[in-house]
Amino acid sequence: MENWLTSLNLSLLFNQTFWINTAILVVGTLVIYSVLRGLIRFLTNRTSKSPHQRGQFLYHIAVEILRSTSNMLLLIFSLLLALKFIALPPRWTTVVAHGWFIALLLQIALWLDCGIRLWLSGMRRDPTHVRNPVTTVIIGIMLRVIVWAMLMLAILSNMGVNITALVASLGVGGIAIALAIQTVLSDVFASLAIGFDKPFEHGDFIVFGDIAGSIEHIGLKTTRLRSLSGEQIVCSNTILLQQTIHNYKRMNERRILFRFGISYETPAEKMRKVSKLLREVIEQVGNTRFDRAHFFAFDESKLTFEVVYYVTVADYNQYMDVQEEINLQLMERLEALEINFAFPTRRIEFTGGKLPQVKVAGLASNETDDESEAPAEMSSRYADNKQ
After folding, report:
1. How far apart are the first and last CA of the chain?
2. I want to staple 207 with a disulfide (CB 3.0 to 4.6 A). Which of 81, 183, 198, 246 is the partner?
């Protein structure tokens, strides 16, 4: 055996065809590699320096994809091309064909992987559209897993492996895993739905059920809010999407309705001036749009006015400043017209009999006796303030 190997090595050393083929292969590989590398460099420089293409996102992705071409795979391509210049045994032809297929698929997968990363990075840096970073990460992971999984299946199929049973077993295993973690998966898909549909975003103030707060973080499984009282609220994404959500950050304007009461002693001619007065007050305050003001109803102890106007900014603090200014000016204007706000009033009548005796400290008994007699019919009025 050793003698045979020795004779084989010696025969190769003195085989002129072997050395010629080796030299052609080495020189051809280096030349082809240099040409391909130079061609890629020329294309990337030409594309990046072109005036009408500079700054465009798609051309930037194309340039970066070309620059990400693997030098190792490029060298393998050069070697496979150089093999075309020499005569190969028949059994090497199949090996070379498999090598072409595997190297090409690997390079395409690398290009797609680079394109996905650049696309998602550009989406996250886009100032015109604020996107949920968790959603972009999930999309990137899913797309890259699909690319590399299809690459592996294609390589195995090209090498003669029966992938039908493998795909079927992977499908069954995937179903089992999905059933085991269905709660987590539902929250993950809910996170994707939040990212695509955008019912709310980071920084929005939302209210659902009896919970109100600002969005701090949208994660894979949960969304975190900061409540008005300061504590952090953690809610499952699936449960959150099942609620009716009020997003106050996206409110363009706020409709305000309020009522107040005027005393029944106010004459009709002064009542007619109140609606006009309200319009003037609201229009003088900034960031408002007057809608209506009417004498609304005869209530138990007041003449009720109903007022509707719009605050043209969404900020709640500005709305409260506007309402405060309206209330103060309304008090001043009504006071100038000698119109009084109504207080809850009740009238009590005693029919027949007499009031019970009341002893007041500091009064003589004859004084209390003289005043103890009450008329048969009398009325008293009292007022109390309601909160």
Report:
1. 110
2. 246
Strands of 190-344, DSSP E: 205-208, 211-218, 222-227, 232-236, 246-247, 254-262, 288-298, 303-311
DSSP structural state of residue 342: P
Which residues in 204-224 are b (16+ Cβ under 10 Å) and which e?
bbbebeeebbbbeebeebbbe
CB of 61 within 8 A of CB of 117?
no
Q: What does the pLDDT look like over 198-220, one tens digit per residue?
A: 888 888 899 998 899 999 988 88
CA 40, CA 96: separation in Å to the nearest integer?
24
Q: Give φ, ψ of 76 to 5 degrees.
A: -65, -40
> Comparing C-alpha atoms, which of 316, 341, 337 is closest to residue 327?
341
pTM listed for this prediction: 0.51
Count CB neighbours of 137 within 10 A.
Answer: 14
Token pair 């999309």 in the structure block, residue: 139
